[in-house]
Write a structure and sequence with these properties.
The complex is a heterodimer of chains A (309) and B (395). Chain A folds into two domains: 221 residues, P-loop containing nucleotide triphosphate hydrolases (Rossmann fold), CATH 3.40.50; 64 residues, 2-Layer Sandwich (Alpha-Beta Plaits). Helices cover 34% and strands 28% of the residues of chain A. In chain A, the strands form three sheets. A six-stranded mixed sheet of chain A has the order 5-6-7-3-8-9, sandwiched between helices. Chain A has a four-stranded antiparallel sheet with strand order 11-12-10-13. Chain A starts with a strand and ends with a helix. Chain A is an alpha/beta fold and 309 residues long. In chain A, a hairpin with a 2-residue loop joins strand 1 and strand 2. Chain B folds into two domains: 94 residues, D-Maltodextrin-Binding Protein, domain 2, CATH 3.40.190; 231 residues, no CATH class. Chain B has a four-stranded mixed sheet with strand order 2-1-3-4. Chain B is elongated, with a radius of gyration of 31 Å. The chains are: A alpha/beta (309), B alpha/beta (395). The interface between A and B is medium-sized, with 29 and 23 residues. Chain A: It holds the Pfam family ABC_tran. Chain A: Belongs to the ABC transporter superfamily. Chain A: This is ABC-2 type transport system ATP-binding protein. Chain A: InterPro entries: AAA+_ATPase (IPR003593), ABC_transporter-like_ATP-bd (IPR003439), ABC_transporter-like_CS (IPR017871), ABC_transporter_ATP-binding (IPR050763), DrrA1/2-like_C (IPR025302), P-loop_NTPase (IPR027417).
Chain lengths: 309, 395
């Protein structure tokens, strides 16, 4: 059975002066999705998110929410969670007070908010610092508090704008698990991030945006099927990598120079391994040869590059 | 979650964030310490000023004058040589005065002019009057008869104003100035500070800007009034203690507590402070960096407006005074001031109050709209022109 759509965006457009920050994009998010909203810097992600959160208004287009709590006396805002890209909390106040207040303005009772806040603080190993002022915490820990503030009131839908920025790899992995956990417990997630390997681990749907325009909208598995059937080979040479000679191979689509001795070669869709091996055997001084899967990162770069060209 | 519940949450948050009873008590203790130091210091200075001050007079000065001066001065008589020495040492000593007399002409040598010289002048005038009266053979009684003031029977047709009411009106206007000053500081922290900390985006994703703005205005107004309430209670207690010490009956304090006037003054004061808080909130919404913004200076305006209404006490019935008592930016303090010093009809009070309340209603809405259009501006501060354009576009 198809999952119920809980957010539908149609023909959304926003202009700032003469620039289309968001140019007639449409997408929908279904209940239980982890929807990755991806794009390079300045692509229009944050503008779209701010429109969804009703912070700024679109010039054109329609947004419709279909949340379970709607119509039960709850405003949309109390059913949504939001981690803004621009972080900020009350630095001069105790952590627990800020968390209770932020949950309170989204409709959560004070007593429930306190219990939930302590639960999450324990989970994030910050329970003993609940009564400290936020400014006493490190940047990373402040970031954790910000995350708690966005999901404390158990929203039906949460928007996480750059949730991994500012975290070390260990904490990034932990946050992948937290996102999976809240999603498992019934919260639909829309996340915007630049860390493609992390997005791959958690998202089931992907929307790619560039210069305000949609360049891909579909499931994560489809994006691999559609754009991921490329072979990628990492090559290392004893001396300088022969870039020009490699680019003369007919099947080569793209070459990325890692350093002067190493290159990453992407081949056209449908390229077979055997003829490539034959052609590469003619190159002297290859010290390393490694094939790899065409990742979301590669697809992202390729799609953005093609869109720009 | 409805408007009122969210409003209550934001209002109480702002109130508890800024109103700290501990800080208030520390402030009061510091104020009392300064009061005690000031009281004893001025008492000491006053006592010292009552001591006889020294004066040097030349040998030739009339004995009658010396006798007259001795009532208030510690007189030392100097011969010619001592007079020269005294004058020569004046630039170094920088104190003391020397009086010489040549017939009816006097000369005073002193380092600089001072109150003591004026005092000396009055004794010399009195001495000269005595001499002149003797010269023309005028009895003292005749002079007193000539100088007697005209008898005037005063008939006033506005008698409602009393000293107590006037003091109450001044008290409430003073309270408003104080509340606005307190709000001035808190609005910066609550609005501009929140913008600088980039909390705003998180908050307005959860509540409408109008709720946010109303909550801040009410919370900060409540903070200001809580501080003032504490000071009022202390003032009343201080008044009671003062009247007890000075032996005045308690009714002297109670004479000030005229309930209908208090209700009237309080209503104007509360809505006036709310109105000014809305104006301050609107200004603070545009400011991105209070340390470098020229708009910060606008935040001081309310105190000037409220303070200006004190001038009404001088002439409460001219056109300017009537206009100010109706114009919302002044009326909260101007109308109560007029009410205690002249005849103000009930419909004038009602009309002025309704205008004031309407002005508050619309300015708080305008403040929320200004805040909404300038929410995400953290870089260059928008000019008034930008704000006007953004407001127009936001329609």
């Amino acid at each position: 059975m198809a999952k119920q759509e809980i957010l539908k965006v149609e023909g959304l457009r926003k202009r700032f002066k003469d620039i289309d920050a968001v140019n007639k994009i449409s997408f929908s998010v279904a209940e239980g999705d982890v929807f990755a909203f991806l794009g390079p810097n300045g692509a229009g992600k944050t503008t779209t998110i701010r429109i969804l959160m009703d912070i700024i208004h679109a010039d054109e287009g329609a947004i419709s929410w279909n949340l379970k709590g709607q119509g039960n006396g709850f405003s949309i805002a109390s059913l949504l969670g939001y981690l803004p890209e621009e972080r900020g909390l009350y630095l001069d106040l105790p952590v627990i007070n800020s968390l209770i207040y932020l949950a309170g303005i989204r409709g959560m009772q004070k007593s429930k908010a306190k219990i939930a806040a302590m639960h999450w603080l324990e989970k994030l190993e910050l329970a003993d610092r609940a009564n400290e002022k936020l400014q006493a915490l490190s940047k990373g820990n402040q970031q954790k508090i910000q995350f708690i503030a966005s999901i404390l009131h158990e929203p039906e839908f949460v928007i996480l704008d750059e949730p991994f920025s500012g975290f070390d790899p260990i904490n990034q992995e932990k946050f992948i698990e937290f996102i999976k956990e809240i999603n498992y417990n019934g919260t639909t997630v829309l996340l915007s991030a630049h860390q493609m390997p992390l997005v791959e681990k958690v998202a089931n749907k992907v929307f790619l945006i560039n210069d305000g325009c949609e360049i891909y909208n579909g499931s994560l598995s489809d994006i691999y099927n559609k754009f991921g059937d490329r072979m990628v080979i990492d090559l290392a040479f004893e001396d300088h990598a022969p870039l020009n000679k490699v680019s003369e191979i007919e099947e080569v689509e793209d070459i990325e120079s890692v350093d002067e001795k190493q290159i990453k070669v992407t081949f056209m869709p449908g390229t077979k391994m055997e003829p490539i091996l034959n052609k590469l055997s003619g190159f002297a001084g290859i010290t390393e040869f490694r094939t790899q899967k065409y990742t979301l990162h590669d697809i992202f770069l390729n799609l953005v590059k093609n869109h720009r060209s | 979650m409805n408007y009122w519940l969210q409003l209550k949450t934001v209002m109480l948050w702002e109130y508890h964030r800024f109103f700290k009873i501990k800080n208030e008590l520390i402030g009061i203790v510091i104020m009392l310490v300064f009061f005690v130091i000031g009281f004893f210091g001025s008492s000491y200075a006053f006592k010292a000023s009552q001591d006889k001050s020294p004066i040097h007079v030349a040998e030739g000065v009339d004995g009658e004058l010396i006798e007259l001066l001795s009532e208030n001065f510690d007189v030392t008589i100097l011969d010619d040589r001592e007079q020269e020495t005294f004058i020569a040492e004046l630039p170094e000593r920088k104190s003391g005065s020397l009086l010489t007399q040549e017939g009816a002409t006097f000369e005073v040598h002193s380092w600089r002019n001072s109150g003591r010289i004026k005092e000396l002048q009055s004794y010399l005038d009195e001495y000269r009057s005595g001499l002149a009266m003797r010269e023309i053979d005028l009895p003292k009684e005749s002079l007193q008869y000539v100088l007697k003031p005209a008898t005037v029977k005063e008939v006033y047709y506005f008698t409602a104003g009393s000293r107590e009411r006037r003091i109450m009106a001044i008290f409430f206007s003073g309270m408003m100035v104080m509340a606005v000053f307190i709000s001035f500081a808190y609005q910066f922290t609550a609005i501009t500070g929140e913008k600088q900390l980039r909390i705003t985006e998180q908050i307005v994703s959860a509540i409408r800007p109008q709720v946010w703005m109303d909550g801040k205005i009410l919370g900060i107004t409540l903070t200001g009034f809580s501080s003032i309430l504490i000071y009022t209670i202390i003032s009343i207690l201080g008044g009671i203690i003062y009247f007890q010490i000075t032996g005045s009956p308690l009714s002297s304090v109670l004479a000030y507590l005229h309930l209908p006037s208090i209700l009237l003054f309080l209503s104007f004061t509360v809505v006036g402070v709310l109105l000014w808080n809305s104006v301050l909130a609107a200004i603070a919404s545009i400011i991105t960096d209070p340390n470098n913004s020229v708009k910060s200076s606008l935040m001081i305006l309310p105190s000037l407006f409220v303070g200006a209404s004190f001038l009404l006490l001088l002439n409460p019935d001219n056109h300017v005074a009537v206009f100010l008592s109706w114009f919302p930016l002044f009326s909260a303090s101007a109308m109560p001031m007029r009410f205690v010093v002249t005849d103000v009809a009930w419909w004038e009070l009602m009309g002025s109050f309704i205008f004031l309340a309407l002005a508050f209603y619309f300015i708080r809405k305008l403040a929320a709209r200004i805040f909404h259009v300038s929410i995400l501006i953290n870089g260059n501060e928008p000019t008034w022109k930008d704000v006007f354009r953004m407001l127009k576009e936001s329609k």
